[in-house]
Design brief:
The chain is built from twelve helices and no strands. It is mainly alpha-helical and 289 residues long. Helix 4 (84-116) packs across helix 7 and helix 9 packs parallel to helix 10 (239-248). The longest helix is centred in the C-terminal third of the chain and has 39 residues, at 192-230. The chain is flat. It starts with 29 loop residues before the first helix and ends with a helix.
Length: 289
Amino acid sequence: MPDHVLVQRPEFVREVETSAFGVVEKPLTVWEKIYNNGAIRKGVLLLLLAAAWQIYATALNNPLLFPKFSDTFGAFYDGIVNGVLLGRAWFSITVLLQGYAAGLALAALLTAFAITSRVGNDFLETLTSMFNPLPAIALLPLALIWFGLGNASLVFVLVHSVLWAVALNTHSGFMSVSQTMRMVGRNYGLSGPRYVVKILIPAAFPSILTGMKIGWAFAWRTLIAAELVFGVSSGSGGLGWFIYENKNQLEIANVFAGLFSVIIIGLLVENIIFRNVELRTVRKWGVQS
């Protein structure tokens, strides 16, 4: 007779009352859904600012000093309908993209040189400490002398605005990549461009993206300031020149409409372009929460 006898026990299934554990997931109220929507919250804040603007301008009652929001919006709407603001905005954006692309390319070259040799690292650090604190608008007189009155001068000051912010943040991002990540890349046999593309760039991309954002902001405000001084070229000009012209003609509502356009373009670039890049890269890769 075997020492161990297998005894098959009958199955027993116990029904558990789910209500005994309480509510696992509580549905959100309408107010909570609205409050959790960032776009709605920001929209409400903008409406409150517009209302405060309208109330203050009405109480001031001096359109040459501070026009009403309704007058500014009317001038902005007219500028969009007749195409003036769209044309000026397109002119500014075209020049900006030229300077921004050139600045990114030079920043990539300088950073590549810096991470491959000590001399390159010293070279980048020295140039950054020298030129990063220098306002781009201070180079305006030299740009006029070297390149004349035109787009080349604008592109020159834009490159200066973009180059140092992007190069500094990119270099800092590469230097902050952990040794563990570097060893992982080496263990997989990665080297050269494949090592940079698959290990260094993804790990440092939050810093790279931050540098791109800062470079964009610097370039945009530098461009508008430069256009205020010498932005007209071949009978046309950008948003900065539009603001300057209307200031001379005492069309203050149009001046505010031009400023309004500058702000809107900045918001669109930040919340649509850079936001989507961030969602498709650093958030998707899990290198930023």
